[in-house]
Amino acid sequence: MAEEAVGKAYSQVEKDVMVSLEDVIDPELGIDMVNLGLIYDVTVKDHHCVVTMTLTTIGCPLGSLLANQITQAVTSVDGVATCDIELVWEPAWNPSMMSRFAKVALGIHG
Questions:
Q1: DSSP string, 47-88
Q2: What is the rounded average pLDDT of the residues 104-108?
Q3: Mean pLDDT of 34-56
């Protein structure tokens, strides 16, 4: 997650959003956005969610598809009515941001 999110305590609805985002699979890699480390932060206030995220590459052709899936996943959570996605490029994503699960699934060791 982004530096500003490190150590942030999530509310229950924000935790529920993160769980829901685990259902959004990157079609190229076959791993969910959360375990890939692409979701940097989630904030919910007044039934509105802002998802701060990145993509594996700036020119990723799946950005629109993923945005639609993310919005659907987020707004399916009780307590969330609307969603905005803040796409950021800093910090730049790299494979070290992936969870152990994602690394094992992709055959990345070390």
A1: TEEEEEE--SSTT-TTHHHHHHHHHHHHHTSTT--EEEEEE-
A2: 92
A3: 96
Q: Are 44 and 11 in contact (CB under 8 A)?
A: yes
Pairing type for strands 82-87 and 48-53 reads parallel
Which DSSP state fits 108?
-
The dihedrals phi and psi of 69, each to the nearest 5 degrees, come to -65, -40
Nearest to 75 by CA among 49, 53, 45, 93: 49
**CATH placement of domain 9-97:** 3.30.300.130
Q: What is the pLDDT of residues 81-102, one digit of tens each?
A: 999 999 999 999 999 999 999 9
80 burial type by CB count under 10 A (0-12 exposed, 13-18 middle, 19+ buried): buried
Domain regions of the chain by residue span = 9-97
| pLDDT for residue 3 is more than 60 | no
Environment class of 66 (CB within 10 Å of its CB; exposed 0-12, middle 13-18, buried 19+): buried
